[in-house]
Write a structure and sequence with these properties.
The complex is a heterodimer of chains A (478) and B (80).
Chain A (H helix, E strand, L loop, with lengths): L5 H16 L5 H14 L5 H21 L3 H38 L17 H16 L9 H9 L1 H4 L7 H9 L6 H33 L7 H33 L16 H4 L5 H18 L4 H20 L3 H30 L6 H23 L3 H13 L9 H23 L12 H18 L13
Chain B lengths: L2 H16 L20 H15 L5 H4 L5 H12 L1
Helix pairs in contact in B: 1-2, 1-4
Classes of the chains: A mainly alpha (478), B mainly alpha (80).
Chain lengths: 478, 80
């Protein structure tokens, strides 16, 4: 049940009514049942995997906190991690490993006919696995006390607004909220509705419209010239931002309406003047998760190598992030590129700050703009690998961008016009929020008329130029 | 080592890592107060502190340091 489906528009208000009708103490049970109903709707049998991961996370955390014997604690911890990770590794990498083995066996002429086995990736499995892992690590590190109530852990891992694509929440933030009996917070509800509306705008007006163009170009890279490929490659980061960012706002908004505060996932990423700053603003819940549970232990272990230890930790963390996105050469390359960009920045940091200080560049407008443009170009160049279907396609894209110019492929003019309108509106809002916060207010203007007009305008725009043929959200595949 | 002495040595480490010769640290200072203090420079700082005071931190202890004051306290705990 995607947020953009008709079913969700019925499901959510129904859950909301049931939720508020339930006595405060038992509201988490209503949410738990609703979350499993939501998930079972995707594919019933896969709810068993979700249940298994939740049960393991709950049980092993209790075992870990029940003993002071360090050896035992460590064993419980390792078994916990393996059990929680096993389904993700199996569903995500079985085909890739199987194909690689098959290819190798064929090469050495050791092959026999085998029935092809295909598994669909249980939707949301990466996201709830990360949340369960985070909980296990926090309990092991004594950052968090183990939760006794299996219902609370079950809800944390299956919470329906977040399960399909995050934000990847932390037990430390969510468990106290789930334990507390929530009562309606009208300011939070209003905020939630606002986020949902903007989320739908981002997804339906911007992401899916850009998607039409990018898909038509990227599905036949050999038929398009470098100009069109360059244009599509520059558009794709915006599509992904509007897609995952829009999804995240709807997820956060739904949680707000239920009374829960959720960490943000994006913070106007395209106004970041450096790559390091960009990654503090893009898919933030994944990056902070990777920072805390992968990068920090790695860089800590390698700290005696100083800046080279950090470079190594960065490369490994982003390679892992790439492999998580997919066990393909394209995603590996994507991860490697992020690691290289960030490492180069870290290595040049000292020298850069000396020059910045000498010419007092940091406050100069042209310098900030140049940084923003350069960061965007680096990121979009890496995204060619994330969007291209195969490594070969990505190489064709690069090659044509530099060698084959010609007229821009337009497709249908309406797509271009709507695409431009949506994107300009989205970037304009981000621009005002970034550089003129509290100066030009539309959605939170004190004047009711301005506020109502702004909301109405967005609703009309969504209804008029939104794409309603219901494509999926990009991150559902991860 | 007295707290004042620790703070002075710590300040020198901060100045070296962040390349800011006039930086003055305060107990309540956090990563938000220094632009260049991010997850990358943090580990350089940790390693610099370890070398300066000849101590070794544990991974778990990193999470305990929420501001400069926590850092000073942990260093003095380790030196005893």
């Amino acid at each position: 049940m995607a947020f953009t489906s008709f079913n969700f528009l019925i499901f959510f208000p129904l859950v909301l009514i049931l939720y508020w009708l339930t006595p405060g103490k038992y509201r988490y049970i209503t949410l738990l049942i609703a979350s499993y109903f939501f998930y079972i709707n995707v594919k019933p049998v896969l709810a068993l995997v979700l249940f298994g991961v939740s049960a393991a996370a709950w049980g092993f955390a209790l075992l870990m906190s029940g003993t002071r014997n360090e050896k035992k604690r460590r064993t419980y911890f390792l078994v916990n991690i393996i059990i929680v990770l096993l389904p993700l590794v199996f569903f995500k990498y079985f085909s890739a490993i199987n194909n690689a083995l098959l290819k190798y066996l064929t090469e050495i002429r050791l092959n026999w006919p085998l029935p092809e086995m295909r598994f669909i990736l249980p939707i949301g499995i990466s996201f709830y696995t990360f949340m369960a892992l985070g909980y296990a690590i926090d309990v092991y590190n004594d950052e968090l006390k183990a939760e006794r109530n299996p219902g609370i852990i079950g809800l944390f891992i299956s919470f329906f607004p977040l399960i399909l694509s995050g934000p990847i929440e932390r037990a430390g933030n969510m468990l106290p909220q789930f334990r507390k009996a929530q009562s309606p917070d009208f300011a939070l509800i209003a905020k939630g509705l606002q986020l949902i509306l903007w989320g739908y705008f981002m997804k339906l007006v911007v992401a899916d419209r850009i998607g039409i163009y990018v898909t038509s170009v990227y599905s036949h890279v050999e038929h398009h010239n470098g100009t069109s490929l360059l244009f599509a490659s520059m558009l794709y980061p915006f599509q992904l931002y509007a897609d995952l960012g829009g999804y995240s706002l709807i997820a956060i908004g739904c949680s707000n309406i239920l009374g829960y505060k959720i960490i943000p996932n994006f913070n106007r990423p395209f106004f970041a003047p450096t790559m390091a700053e960009f990654w503090r603003r893009w898919h933030m819940s994944l990056i902070t998760w990777l920072t805390d549970y992968v990068y920090t232990p790695l860089s800590f272990a390698l700290r005696k190598y100083k800046v080279w230890g950090i470079v190594c930790a960065l490369l490994l963390t982003f390679l892992l992030s790439g492999i998580w996105h997919g066990a393909t050469m394209t995603f590996l390359m994507w991860g490697l590129m992020q690691g290289i960009f960030l490492s180069a920045e870290a290595l040049l940091n000292q020298r850069k700050s000396i020059i910045e200080k000498k010419y007092s560049l940091e406050k100069k407008r042209w310098y900030i703009v140049a940084g923003i443009v350069f960061t965007f170009l680096m990121f979009s160049s890496s995204m060619v690998f994330s969007r291209a279907a195969t490594f070969h396609d990505a190489m064709v894209v690069y090659n044509k961008i530099f060698t084959e110019h010609g007229p821009l492929f337009v497709g249908s003019p309406s797509t271009m016009i709507y695409l431009g309108c949506g994107l300009i509106l989205l970037l304009l809002k981000d621009f005002l929020d970034e550089f003129y916060p509290h100066k030009i207010k539309l959605f939170d203007n004190d004047n009711t008329i301005v506020r109502t007009m702004s909301y109405s305008a967005i609703i009309i725009i969504i209804l008029l130029i939104g794409v309603f043929d219901s494509s999926q959200f990009i991150y559902f595949q991860f | 080592m007295q707290e004042r002495e620790i703070a002075e040595k710590l300040e020198a480490s901060f100045r070296k890592v962040f390349n800011m010769n006039t930086l003055e640290i305060k107990r309540e200072m956090t990563a938000n107060d220094i632009d260049k203090w991010d997850s990358l420079t943090h580990m350089l700082l940790i390693s610099e502190i370890e070398d300066t005071f000849e101590i070794r931190f544990k991974l778990k202890e990193l999470n305990r340091m929420k501001n400069v004051g926590d850092m000073i306290d942990l260093i003095s705990e380790k030196l005893q």
